[in-house]
Amino acid sequence: MDHVVFDYDNAGNQINRHLIDVVPGRQSNPNAKDVKNLTDADLIKADIYDDIKYYPNPVKVELYIEWQVTDRIKVTSIELYDLSGKLLKTVNKLENTTNYIFPFNDFPQAIYSLNLVYINGEQKSLKIIKH
Question: Is residue 5 part of a domain?
């Protein structure tokens, strides 16, 4: 089953369209690594952002996400939304870190938008599949 998901700019305009293959009952990678044992080669580079990497997608229990920062551009929070736009969870006070392990075990199987919110107000969105 294919789903189309969109990225939006701050004004709500569609800026990118992604086709995601979602097959009910398909198991995610049985050889998935524990996030504590990841190497740089394991990380998935975000399609449209050079400074964000994550693992795994689809996710079952937890998603490891890492980002690059500069003195002026830091991530302040991460927000998780369902596809209807409902805010499900916010993690704050991330200014002094470059990675986070985001727990997905309390969320049902679905496609989610994970937004990194920067100190300058910019947001970068990733589409994450929960199996």
Answer: no
What length does the chain have? Answer: 131
pTM: 0.69
> Which CATH number is 106's domain given?
2.60.40.3080
Render 68-125 in DSSP notation, one character per residue.
---SS--EEEEEEEETT--EEEEE---TT-SEEEEE-TTS-SEEEEEEEEETTS-EEE
Does residue 42 lie within any of the structural domains?
yes
Domain total for the chain?
A: 1
Compare 6 and 109 and report the one with higher pLDDT.
Answer: 109
Task: Answer whether residue 56 is part of any domain.
Answer: yes
Long-range pairs for 37-46 at CB < 8 Å and ≥24 separation? 38/64, 46/124, 46/126
Q: Which secondary structure element, helix H or strand E, spans residue 130, and what is its range?
A: strand 123-130
